[in-house]
Amino acid sequence: MGQERRSASYHVDRDILDEQSLEDLAQRLDSGRKPHLTDKLPLSPFLRCSVPWLKRSLVRCLPVLYWMPRYSIWDYGMGDLIAGITMGIVQMPQSMAYALLASLPPVFGLYTSLYPVLVYFFFGTSRHISVGTSAVLSIMVGSVTERLAPDHHFLMRNGTNVTLVVDEAARDSYRVTVAVATTVLGGIIQVVLGLVRFGFVATYLSEPLVRGYTSAAACHAAVAQLRYLVGLSSTRFVGPLSLVYTLGDVCSRLHQAHVPTLVVGLLSFLVIFSAKELNASLSKKLPVPIPVELLSDVHCGTVISIFYLHNNICLSLIWCLSACRLLPPRVPQTSLFREVIGDAFAMAVVGYALAISLGKTFALKHGYKVDSNQELVALGISNTVGGFFHCYSISSSMSRSLVQVTAGGKTQVSPYICKHSSCHHVCVFCTCVCPQAVLSAIVLVNLKGMFKQYYDIVALWRSSRIDLVVWLATWLFTLLFQLDMGLAASIAFALLTVVFRTQHPQYSVLGQVPGTEIYMDMEKYKEVHGVPGVTIFRSSATVYFANADLYLEALMEKVGCCDDTLSRDQERLSLGSLGKWTWDIHSIILDLSPANFIDTVAIKTMKTVSDHKEHERDEGRGLGKETTSVVEQLEQGDFFSDCISKGCLFATVHDAVLYCTGKHEPQQKNPE
Description:
Blueprint: H1 19-26, H2 37-40, H3 43-48, H4 51-61, H5 64-67, H6 73-101, H7 107-112, H8 115-123, E1 131-132, H9 135-148, E2 155-157, E3 164-166, H10 168-195, H11 207-230, H12 242-252, H13 259-281, H14 292-311, E4 318-320, H15 337-366, H16 372-388, E5 395-396, H17 398-406, H18 413-428, E6 433-435, H19 436-446, H20 448-451, H21 456-463, H22 465-480, H23 483-503, E7 507-512, E8 519-521, E9 534-539, H24 548-559, H25 565-577, E10 587-591, H26 600-617, E11 620-624, H27 628-636, E12 649-650, H28 653-669
Parallel strand pairs: 9-10, 10-11, 11-12
Antiparallel strand pairs: 1-5, 2-3, 4-6, 7-8, 7-9
């Protein structure tokens, strides 16, 4: 048996309060001069530079100075050690596989998992996210590198033969140059946005937009890996509809598939997928996940190497990392900045959005706070520094972050240990043989989480059709266009849906709940009845320039002042049949409670309503339940005059109703 609801009642006896009376009663403070931007800048601390201020600034810029002195080896050490080693094992094959998505040699995926992690250790505020290679950003980098360094730009003759072949060494070198330039520029953009406190930019990327975008990016990644999985050297397509062209090219040439490559790829996919499912089902019993990616990579590489040496038929499977070593830093080619600035900005926004959303999720779960602006700066510095060391754009990885948490990782010490593990892999596995088909299988299996996001369609269909439209539109734009163009089109479409919602709100005429001061929509509630002679009109959205005309039209239609007499009569007949509205109107009350701002166009609309009531019928009007910010904007917009005073504004709708009915009761009792 549930607890019975406790009944309570209250009685209030007060005078009718209009805006002026309410300000006098509450003693409104004079806001005075509004502070300028220069007033908000902390210039005086820079001039004084006191020791406490300097300490707070250093801790804010370097969060490691705050949490590292408080780090407890007994509480966190063992968990971070196990999680770091586990992540290092998982990260090696995954980072090499994601490098293929970026159209770069696999070793540069290892570099990307090494240097940026060290930088984020000092500047990041999230304790649980694993930064490094990301499937979405790898695809975005790949679209840039393939656009600026396509294969046909690096054709050369094969010795004395007239056959043209691709100079892969020159092509890969220039693609690395393009990726590094894009990464450094994107990092600079992130740092600048973080310093100007622009962390809220990620709020414009709603969850349906991000999930639709990543779902489409997963399709791009899967199609890009098909040619490696079946052993085809298909033509690379860039630009709009590149996904369609690539898929058509692969399907038309399936009869040319390299059978050993296809067999190895399919077997690797089945083994890795099965092992991943086993890890998920036994996650509570296994101390650490089975490193199936690394085992598949090493075992398949060893078997294929032996098979190749004896049979000499599996050349298309091999990607040798004999050149794998730590490279000295290099200054990026700044002349490319002009060509990649749009892609760099898109990567900066998407990378930050993915990282901050995942970071806030873990922070909420584990009870700490993530600084959104500092995260933007941390990612920017990581990308900028990493670009000088041949790394491409980074973000957080959901799969690696979950591995870190489930393995017992508590702080950023575990990614730091993972970084040393990655450095060990770069130095030890410098002569290993990595089958491309296995790397492709690793990518496809790790895309499972993104493909599961298609279940969102069913959930959004039940909860919000507009969010579903945003999800589908984002998915379609990203699927048909490049990732940067798809992101821009998706954001524009999402903003249009916001305008659409405010431009077409729900307009309602309110009535009184019997025996209360509560007013609700008369068309939705049976026992709600209108106040004789008074129309209470409410819009569910803020009134501004985009919907001001529609607001006025809806008001005139509800009141009965529009030219469409038939529509007016039908409205009154409908409400009259319910016994709710059969009288003439002498007062209009506008409920502005949903409004959080009002612009000059809306102010002119309010004046139009007031002038109409004054000149046509010389009757009452009032604004009920407005917010303080709306009142201030009405004052700034010169809404008040000799004809319209603050006596037309009331604290609640009920105050306005009592005022209007009390004003016209004598006229109704003694008609002239």
